[in-house]
Amino acid sequence: MSSADNDAFEQTHHQSLSDPEKFWRSAAEEIHWTKKPNKILDTSESPHGKWFVDGELNTCYNALDRHVEAGRGEHDALIYDSPVTNTIKKYSFAELLEQTSRFAGVLRSAGVEKGDRVIIYMPMIPETVIAMLACARIGAIHGVVFGGFAANELAVRIDDAEPKLIVTATCGIEVNRVIPYMPLLNGAIDIASHKPSSVIVFARPEADAELIAGRDIDWCEAMAMAEPVECVPLKATDPLYILYTSGTTGIPKGVVRDNGGHAVALNWTMKAIYNVEAGDVYWAASDVGWVVGHSYIVYGPLLKGCTTILFEGKPVGTPDAGVFWRVIAEHKVKSLFTAPTAFRAIKKEDPDAELLKQHDLSNFEILFLAGERTDPDTLHWAEDKLGRPVIDHWWQTETGWSIAANCMGLGMLPVKAGSPTKAAPGWQLDVLDENCNPLPSGEVGALCGKLPMPPGSMLTLWNAPDRFVESYFAEFPGYYKTADAGFIDEDGYVFVMSRTDDIINVAGHRLSTGGMEEVLTGHPDVAECAVIGVADQLKGQLPVGFLVLKAGVLKESEEIVAECVQRVREQIGPVAAFKQAAVVARLPKTRSGKILRGTMQKIADNEAYRMPATIDDPIILDEIDEALQGLGLSKARD
Ligand code: COA
Ligand code: AMP
User: Fold this and answer.
1) Whole-prediction pTM value?
2) Which residue ranges form the domains of the chain, and what is each CATH number?
């Protein structure tokens, strides 16, 4: 790095904070507006800020139409690479536009209008992207639900979003296992109080499904009859989508994203953070059901005019740990973005990266990792094997893009292992104590962003304006609470250490231990329980449950544990990866009755812990340690 690089980053960061309106007005120039915004930032209603409030635009127009109108219609917009179905299919911008505007016509014919919600419960196929963009085209608000969730979780989202219509496919494919979607969807609609008026079903050859007359519409038949429709101009602050994410309870938070701030911010990040231009091939190996998929499989790359890769496979097993290298080489990928867990999986299968040698990665420039902290081992392994920069960056569903990153388009800063580098432009980060006082560098506290939040951050929580304020802005007035704890070192590097709430991170997936506890206490024999996240070499963390049974229960503990594991799988979904639990006589608590989950987690992770002064009965911690040892999770302490 030259000092000029450092200067470019520092200057940009400084400009973004000293005059945010000038900074983002300039970034907004790259977006096509049907009505240009004059009012850039509005904090009159809420200090978190709304952006471009009097502007009008259409996100789909910016992602597709404008590239075609600029003469780039024949360029690849999307490459669908599916090792699980042995398919590679390319869509030019013109083709993706044609399919999207036609599907927008299908939605219209089914009665979907601006502001209506559409739930998309789909696997990683191009039709999912087409459905999302078609919603954006007509101003319908999409809510994509990840395929690994169970019917019950889908039902909760249906009841909250109250969709007019649901789009689905007959199945997803997990490595070599076909997951029929229709039983899950029908189950969810049965559970939900809200009933959608129609369901559009994309039939995949891998699974048939019987359509329900009067409710279900076949995707292909509807497309054959549909008329393409044009983009609807939308207010910058009209919602583009709702994306549900785990909160501290079983009720997920519906993060609402706007159109204007989102388009401006994501488009800006493509160059500033990921260092890609129109025409470059960009690959986010995630799932469209997560925020990474929304921001960097669909919207970010297409807004910028990049080619995006839609990969239906896993880092290992489809067919082997060389598949990432094959995709990078075959499609000339310039930047890859994935979760560290994917690289840990590859490292485990192919520690010397032998499979890498079979592929030409000469176009590949940078690996970006996020979703969880990049552990130094994985960082160094990837740097060593790839011989290219490996960039950790930190963000959340709520923020939509990086809070801290090494902004590669502004000049690379030196990498410090374990740190996602510095607060990104738009973010002033402080580490606060419980009285909202900034802590000196090096001290761990709550990582909080000074308000307003930059464009692209959430607009609100769907149906939950009070929860929005309570969750994010009440505890630290004037700040956005990230709910991550960490510190900032003397060079301004951010270190994200842990969550401050009951969220755990399993294979880059954000899960609520509180949600799992709600499911476990629903078991008729369970009196109370606790779920903690225990460090795992592959997935970062894994949930482990502790069950206290009701008096007089005669059933074998193993049977109850097996039933609890099944319950979580059925009610939350396989993605929770809840497979381990132990029956214990009691849970460690403070005298006021608070369960000491943090201490339990430290025992499980063999970390030093201080005996909580308020603990009710210290012996219980030994019992927990024994239970963990029984699960093979804790080593006996001296
Ligand atoms: N539909 C249905 N089931 C799904 C699913 C989906 N879309 N996604 C995951 N599942 C299931 C899996 O089949 C698995 O089921 P099982 O318990 O029967 O084996 C379970 O949910 C857990 O899945 P996953 O966390 O993916 O674990 P895995 O053992 O199958 O694979 C990795 C491990 C590391 C390879 C995988 O987690 C991975 O690729 N991670 C990348 C992380 C990522 O993309 N994160 C997104 C944020 S950036
Ligand atoms: P999600 O909303 O699913 O993207 O999850 C966001 C959470 O994942 C954050 O609040 C962090 O706890 C964690 N996270 C994401 N990226 C990183 C990172 N680079 N370093 C540390 N934690 C991360």
Assistant:
1) 0.95
2) 3-313+393-486 (3.40.50.12780), 507-630 (3.30.300.30)
